[in-house]
Amino acid sequence: MELEWLDSQIVDGLTELVLVFDERGRILFGNQAAVEKLEYERDELTECNMTQIFRQIFPGTGESAPAFDRSRIEGGGDLAMYRKNSSCFLADARVLPTARTDVYVLLAEDVTALRDMNLRMRELREEGQENLRRRNEFTANVTHELRTPVNGIKGHVATLLNEVQDPGQRRTLDIILYCCDNMSAIINNILDFSKLETGKFTIEEKEFDFYQMMDRVIATHTAEIHKKELRLSVDIDERIPQFLIGDELRLVQILNNLLSNAVKFTMAGSISVVAGKTMQTGDQVELFFMVKDSGIGISPQDQDKLFQSFTQVDASITRRFGGTGLGLAITKQLVELMHGDVHLESEKGKGSTFSFSVKLRTTQQADDTQNEVYVDWSEYTNRENTEEETGILQFGEQENRKELKKRMDKLVLSIEMGAWDKAEMLASTVKALVERGDDDIKKQVLRMEMAIRKCNHDKSMAMYDNLKTALSERLGEL
Description:
- This protein has 478 residues and is an alpha+beta fold.
- It contains 17 helices and 12 strands.
- The protein has a 5-stranded antiparallel β-sheet with strand order 2-1-5-4-3. It has a 5-stranded mixed β-sheet with strand order 7-9-10-12-11.
C-alpha cells in the first residue's frame, strides 16, 4: 500500500515510536525508533500485525489469536508493547487518524525509564523524610541531654561567685558563665531550627504589652552596648497600640537576634533601633522594625548567604566572632511565619541595616483613617550613615584618629588598673579601628591583645607603648 503522504525521512528522525497500520492491524510502516525499540528488521516489522505488538491485549498465537480490534488500543495510555524476543516495555501510546479513512498512526513513547525514575525519586523522598525524622529526634534528644550539664555548671559557678573574692578567679568564673550562656543559646537555636525544618513550629496568639516588650529587649542589650562604649538610639512610633495580639516570645527572639548581631559586629560607633506602624486595617496591624549599626558590614555578593542555615560569609567570621550561622536563618523563617519580610542594606566597612515587617492584631481600633500608611520604609532603610559613623573604620581619617585616641587612653588605664575584661574589649575595638591599616600595626595590636588575654601587665604595657609609637609615626600624635 502506497503511503505517498508519509515523509519517512522526517518520521525516522522522531524519538517517538511511529507505527502506521490499517483496519486489520497490519503494520504498513515503522520508523527507525520503532525498529530499534521493538528489535525487528524494518521488512520484518511490516510483516507483523498489531496483535503481535500488543499481545497482552490480544492474547494467543496463530489462529487462536483474536482478530484485531482498533478500539482496544484507541483509548491510549500506558500499554505493554512486545519486542521480537517476547520481552516487553511500558509505553505511553495514542492512536491518530490520517487522511485515509482505513489507515491509522500509533505514536508511543517508552515510559519504563521514567516510571523507574519516579519510583526511585519517591523512595529517595521517603528515605530522606525518614532520615530527617531520625536526625531531628537525635537532635532533640542530644540538645535536651546537653542542657542538664550546662545548667549544672552554671548553678555551681553562680554559687562559687558568691564565695570567691580573688579577681583572677572571679574572671575565670565569669568566662565559664559566658561560655555556658553561649552554649545555651546554641542549644536553643538548634532546637528551634529543627522544629522549623519539620513544620512543627507554631506561632502563638496572645495579648502582650508592646512598649513593655521593647523596654525589656533594649534593656537586655544595654549593658553590652555601654561596655563597648557604643551610642544607642531608639525611635518608637507612639501610634503603635500598647496591646497587641501575637507571639511576643518570637518577636523578642527576632529583635534579640538582630540586636545581638549588631552589638557583636560593631566595635565602635552606634546602633539604632526603629519601630513603626506601617498599616492598620480594623484589628490588623503591620509593624516595621529596623536595627542599624556602624559595624563591619557585608559586601553585596555575600549578603545572600546570611539567611542560609549554618552559614556565615567566611570562616574568619566564625573564628573571630563565633556562632553557628543559624540566628538569621531562624529570624527569616520566624518573620515569614508572622506574614512579614526581612530586608538588608549593607556595605563592607560601612555598617548594616536589617529591617523587617510583621503582621499582628490588636483590640484597639485606629483613631484615624483606616488603611493609612504611617511609616515609609525607604525613609529609614535608605538613610545614609553620618560622616562620623562611616569615618570610624576609615583608617587615618579624622573620626578614626579621634576614636583611636579615646580608646587608647581608656585602654592604658584599664591595663594599669588590671581591669582585664575592659582592656580586652578595648583591644578588640582598637583592632577593628586599625583593620584598614598596614600589616605591621595590625600585628602589633594582635600581640598586645594576646598579652592582655594572659593578664600580663608588663608585657601588655610594652606592647601598648610599641603600638602607640607606631600609630604616632603613621598618623601623628594621638
